[in-house]
Amino acid sequence: MNVTEHLNNAKGTLFSIEVLPPQKGKTIDDLLKVIEPLMEFKPPFIDVTYHREEIIYKKRTDGLMEEVPIRRRPGTVGICAAIKGRFNVDTVPHLVCGGFTPEETEDALFTLHYLGINNVLLLQGDADKVQKSGGPKPSAYKYASDLVHQVARMNKGKFLHEETENELKTNFCIGVAGYPEKHFEAPNLGTDLKWLKHKVDCGAQYIVTQMFFDNKKYFAFVEKCRELGINVPIIPGLKALATKTQLNVLPKMFHIDIPEELADAVEKCKDEKAVKRVGIEWAIQQSKELKAANVPCLHYYTMSRSEATIEIAKAVF
Fold this sequence. Notes:
CATH topology: TIM Barrel
């Protein structure tokens, strides 16, 4: 079943999670152990992130430096298949622009199609960690809307290098990201929303938001989307703040604000255990308010750790 079918068939707010692939060299067992206790809350789908390639420099025997592309967390497609097989739950692999050619994207989509995985979340992805101003490779897409366009065409049986419509048509349910506090590259929220509508017009069927800690920003974001004619489901993305350093790291990394009340409460904490308690209680209150407003689903960014999400879900669902 695809994500929008789950949302349409739901009798209330659903629970879903996002997990990270294990780092290269580690096994999948630890990730499955994270997911297992969360199955108590019956997530209809689980997202698995994709991490674009990084460029590292290695010294060659001739003394020159060589660029070497690596991926520290590979295996998104295989992990989705493993989770689907182990827990009998739908999975949502993320696909990103950077580091992929359109042909590689098409191949990955065919693999997913053959595995019976018919949900994708399409993202621009992180910038290259070495050459942030350089943008993606010339052969790669620059915007998520380009990915949406390609997948939507495949759903119609139109492939990259085929002149005619093919008998095989994929049936991917397409999700995209939304930013209640705007994407950091957009000059303002209005411009960002116009690009979001463009993604929907290209074929996106639902939106998952960037994490936020102030529900007012989510509600205002949804209202502005509806005014602009964006009528697809908008799923709020949530994360429990876990460490004091995240007061600085999260705004820098994700371009979001931490409410003063939350920041003040964290600053008063004497240790990280107290910070986690504050973060969980804040997320519980956020979740209860959003659920009372009948949001379609509460989507938790677990960072492949389950303890906080379990406690939140027990209090909310």
